[in-house]
Amino acid sequence: MVGVGPGGPEDLTPRARRALEEADLVIGYRTYVDLVSTIIAGKEVRAYPMKSELERAEAALDAAARGRQVALVSSGDPGIYGMAGPVLEMLGELPGEDGNETAETLQVEVIPGVTAASAAAALLGAPLMNDFAVISLSDLLTPWEVIARRLEAAAAGDLVIVLYNPASRKRTRQFSEAGRIIRRHQPGDTPVGIVRNARREEESRLITSLDAMSEQVVDMATTVIVGNSQTVLAANRMVTRRGYRL
Amino acid sequence: MVGVGPGGPEDLTPRARRALEEADLVIGYRTYVDLVSTIIAGKEVRAYPMKSELERAEAALDAAARGRQVALVSSGDPGIYGMAGPVLEMLGELPGEDGNETAETLQVEVIPGVTAASAAAALLGAPLMNDFAVISLSDLLTPWEVIARRLEAAAAGDLVIVLYNPASRKRTRQFSEAGRIIRRHQPGDTPVGIVRNARREEESRLITSLDAMSEQVVDMATTVIVGNSQTVLAANRMVTRRGYRL
């Protein structure tokens, strides 16, 4: 499982690049595979549509069990809402011995990458200087009540909150609802940073406030960072103070 | 501000490497500067002891204002408990115009890296497949009551919890206290992963339980990941289920 970071080859670690170069089969969601197209040129590639995580995991394990050297590509970090989970869960359910390569003998490695929280924070300033929570607003796999309870808990604990997957084409209600939940615990002028397409074409970023955030258009390529009580604007950037005496 | 990731050059993005190569002055905590010694060989280097964050920030801004191309090195990601905050706070307080390079004209960039949460998670399996909190146990800059309240909130919200800076030579009480706080909300057999020196010499990792975690030795080079209600052992690794139906 190879994390390719937020954008192109500039954000890819040498460890991840080597795994791509050494692979004889590359599997991944089409958009992610495209991010590293120059590196994997000439290799066998199986690009999948969204929401085919289990198919991708199964294809990768099947091919690896047949001796292929597989790179399963995730954007950002495969260990954060990525493909590492489904693959390892599936690997844990494979039979232990069947005369072939199995769970014990397959070499499976997670190669981390720069996750969206880091990429977005860097473009906004330094909002993650203090404790924070990372919460996905996608309720495809997690019930909304669970997500709402986590937003409530994180805001009550004065954690900075990073929102992954704030909206999709069909799922638009959760972003403004998340704002309302956090607003119960944080003032309306709390800085909120919104980054879209970090390190890709059409990258954009803006800093707004908790009260105004729901007016912004967000999508699956957007990461949102909601500040806490220590977050301020400094040098036109969003900074969470850690407590140094300047 | 350049994030060099958890270990050596294998974990450094090309963007970060280029910033190091183009710098004519490298500033940083000695241990972090040593991680990239092969890349910065021959350059002017100012290596500092721990707890000199403000001195490092001031030295970097002073040199940049005098026209130097400075790389201020952080391990992991400078945007997560790193040097990005103090530098931008200080930059925000510089006078706007004094005939020299000032806050408006200084080019300051945060180059993210693979943070310790990602590096540790990758070595443990896939514990960060669902929502999580990142909490530092260092009470040098944040009062312990604030940290305790955040641990309580994160555990009550069933977030996976990543502990940074679990202990130092002089600060040893917080780790077991954190375990007791989380234990009020999670069962004692909740998986806990402990990674020391990720991607460096003497790397070690183990998976234990919430009830047993305080028996382990941890230090400033250790990252601890405490699972949530969905975290299980699969294929000898720590995996947080996201809800796929296998």
Q: Which key terms come to mind for this protein?
A:
homodimer, 246 residues, four-stranded parallel β-sheet, globular, five-stranded mixed β-sheet, 22% strand, alpha/beta
Structural summary, described in words:
The structure is a homodimer of 246-residue chains. Chain A is α/β, with parallel strands linked by helices and 246 residues long. Chain A is built from 7 helices and 12 strands. In chain A, the strands form 3 sheets. A 5-stranded mixed sheet of chain A has the order 6-7-10-8-9, with helices on both faces. In chain A, strand 6 (132-136), helix 6 and strand 7 form a beta-alpha-beta unit. In chain A, helix 3 (53-65) packs across helix 4 (84-93) and helix 6 runs parallel beside helix 7 (173-183).
Short description:
Chain A is α/β, with parallel strands linked by helices. Chain A has seven helices and twelve strands.
Percent helix of chain A, as a range, is 25-40%
Please count the beta strands of chain A (DSSP E, at least 2 residues each): 12
The helix/strand order of chain A is EHEHEHEHHEEHEHEEEEE
Strand order of the largest sheet of chain A: 6-7-10-8-9
Spans where pLDDT lies below 50 across 5 or more residues of chain A: none
Summarize the largest interface: chains and residue counts.
A-B, 79 and 78 residues
Termini separation of chain A: 43 Å
